[in-house]
Amino acid sequence: MSEVNRATVHSFECVEDQVTCVEFSPYENSSHLIAYGGYSRISVGVCRFQEEDKDCDGFEFKHLRDFHHGRRVVAIAWSPETSLDALPRCLRFCSAGDDYRVTVYTSDLKDDDTILTIEGHRDHVNSVAFEPTEGQLIASASDDHSCCVWDLDGNQKARFTLKAAGMSACWNAQDPMKLMVAEKQGTIRFYDLLNQQPIMSLDAGHVTLMSADWCQCDPTRVGAIANGRWMVWDITRLSCPQESQQAHTEGGRHFRWSQASDNLFATTGGPGNQIKLFHMGHHQVPVSANLPVMGSISWHAFLPACAVGGDRRVHIWVAEL
């Protein structure tokens, strides 16, 4: 595949041989934090970009802390309660591994660490998400055809039975009483958390849907990757996608909206380990690259900066809006 790069590229080294998962914190109080993991640990660090900090020379990364994980990291989600700027400091995130469990980490980065293991799924957990306004609930979507909602004590508060494997679970800060869950057979459902009932659905057709995301900049937009095609819906209109385009000829893996623009998103897929950044309304693809190995993708809270896990490194592309 020919590579295209109309973006600034940064990277930093990691201890893990392969970074399987990476996640920027999407919240204002902790937007400089990034978590990343491989097959044994989750690491947390600070990223600074000259686009937001004039005292920063291009890009700076500082490693803060490693947390033992003991298994392959599949998904990471940050809590909105995370803040290192006020005392007592609180760093909190949750993760999913390949052991059917959800793990919640809470730390003051000194002596007080708490690790809570949540059990209840009967198959692999593919996605985790913190409720984005108060951070008292966690959603997890699993291959066991369920999406569960847990409190911070590990109690199950809701369980939604799905018709296929749950691939993605997403909240939206502009509508926190609704939960979006994407199923592998192509259906994306929205659930009302008050009455715990489905309220609407989107249809991707007869496809294998691998990932979906709910746009934080514009909550009327939902995107997904299925059979190598990206799809975008306007949920105020019909349930079929409004736009769709082939992205990866040998299947897609991830879809994530930018937090800085409702027209910018990233996908990964094959052949090889492709990452592509798309800007809706533009014919040119800002970034198209192939890495030796690839993990998940994540966007910075305010900048058009997309991170992806790689071979002993995290790679970050800063696109132009």
Topology, please?
Blueprint: E1 4-5, E2 7-18, E3 21-24, E4 33-37, E5 41-49, E6 59-68, E7 73-78, E8 91-97, E9 102-107, E10 113-118, E11 125-130, E12 137-142, E13 146-151, E14 156-161, E15 166-171, E16 178-183, E17 187-192, E18 197-203, E19 209-214, E20 221-226, E21 229-234, E22 243-246, E23 252-257, E24 264-269, E25 274-279, E26 287-290, E27 297-299, E28 305-309, E29 311-319
Antiparallel strand pairs: 1-26, 2-29, 3-4, 4-5, 5-6, 7-8, 8-9, 9-10, 11-12, 12-13, 13-14, 15-16, 16-17, 17-18, 19-20, 20-21, 21-22, 23-24, 24-25, 25-26, 27-28, 28-29
Amino- and carboxy-terminal Cα gap = 24 Å
**H/I helix tally:** 0
General form: globular
According to DSSP, the number of beta strands is: 29
Structure explained in plain terms:
- The chain contains no helices and 29 strands.
- The chain has about 325 residues and is an all-beta fold.
- The strands form seven sheets. It has a five-stranded antiparallel β-sheet with strand order 1-26-25-24-23, with no helix packed on it.
